Amino acid sequence: MKNYDTFFRKFIVSSIIIVVLFFSVNLILFSMIILLPGFHRDDTDLQIEKISDGITGDNEHIVALPSVIEELHRANAFAMIIDNSGKIIWDIDKPRELPDSYTLKQISDFSKWFLDDYPVSTYEHPLGLLVIGYAKDSIVKYNLSLDKDYFTSFLSGCVLIFLINSFIMVLLFWRNTLKIKKSVTPILSSISAIGKNEDYVLPEEGEFAEICKSLNRVNQQVNQKELVRAEWISGISHDTRTPLSVMLGYAKSLADDPTLPANARKRADIISRHCIRLRDLIADLNVSSKLEYSLQPVKQTNINLAELLRVIVGFYYNEFPDSKYTFGINIDENCYSATFCGDESLLTRMFENIIQNSILHNADGCNITLDLIRNKYNQFKVTITDNGCGLAEDFIEKLNSSEELPFSDFGSLEAEHGLGLRLVKQIAKAHSISIRFSNKERSGLIVELYFTPQD
Fold first, then answer.
1. Considering the entire predicted model, what is its pTM?
2. What residues contact 86, with CB distance under 8 A and at least 6 apart?
3. Range 298-451 has CATH code 3.40.50.2020
4. Between β-strands 62-64 and 55-57, what pairing exists: parallel, antiparallel or unpaired?
5. In sequence order, which ranges of 361-414 are alpha helices (DSSP H)?
6. pLDDT for 117-160, tens place per residue?
7. CA-based nearest residue to 425, from 400, 407, 446
8. Sign of torsion, CA 222 223 228 234?
9. Most exposed among 51, 144, 208, 444, judged by the fewest C-beta atoms under 10 Å?
10. Residue 441: what are its φ and ψ, rounded to 5°?
11. What b/e sequence results for 361-396 when a residue is b if at least 16 CB atoms lie within 10 Å of its CB, and e otherwise?
């Protein structure tokens, strides 16, 4: 569930980033438009002050510099000077329809707006009022006057509206995300449940109804297939029990028959041992299947770990007398009365499978030692060590991972390793026992099991 929450948090953060990026880009573009070179000019790119400086003379003789005349022609503009009496005393390219004198009211009007639809600009000149006119419809003029308090309130309102809209947008993103999360989380959980062989039923309603229907169908199909597999394994275990018992009985009888040649008895003994191994493998497969589908009841009884380990080591010691396999046990004095609540038969099979794994995969023999101590965390630690060939590092990584070894891995891993140690992990998980596999520095395998006693 934490992974799902992280995913949706990232979705919300990315949505907020998109909103911030959207407003930032628009702000940058707006600023670029405002800062364009031509955006700041008042009326045109003519510099009226420079033009005024280029017009000199007195009331009788006024002269404009050639550069001023050229600048006016380039801008398709005209210029004129009006004296204090309102009479035009000088002009360049003044339209004919314009009068030669103006009243104070007319001057006041056109200085702010237009002179007969000609946009104009005015500037104070030593000889009078300098008027620069431009072609009709070339400049737009608006006169805007606002009360200061109203203008301040207006700007504050604009900022407030922007913030409210941003908040509403983020809120809508959040609402939609929560809505999607509510609909998608069960779907993601069901997909995860498929891999764990867990049962689920999704409500077939809402926007994802079709997806839910499909997943429910997949769940039914998977459950049916897994049920068939479990029944098949159970059937195989049951149907092979009698033939194996017959084969084992005859092989044991032949191996113990003194009238047969030694070579024949040796072959019969080999058949007997392989029949036992095949029986144990089928039993492991059956128990593993039952644990996987919670069909194997875990009986809770108080077990003396020290006594259980002594019984197991004693069995193997008697099973392999004077052989290439040696067995040892070391029990700390603080652990003689160590008890653990669990299923004794399953725990016995777990220890036997670990020991049997060392025996089967070290044909030249090895020393197997079991140690029981109490660690600083008040846990009982059982360490099973051998000095054999160990395991492949990639297999150890699989064993130490939290995932259960699937049956499908048996094609890439050694079958006997996979099934026996798969059952070891299943039994440990059913009893909440922490287990760790590792190779010794030189050679051999170390299996550490941590038992937490119940209060």
1. 0.48
2. 101, 102, 103, 104, 106, 107
3. no
4. antiparallel
5. 393-400
6. 888 888 888 888 989 888 888 777 666 666 777 778 878 888 88
7. 400
8. positive
9. 144
10. -60, -45
11. bbeeebbbbbbbbbeeeebbbbbbbbbbbbbeeebb
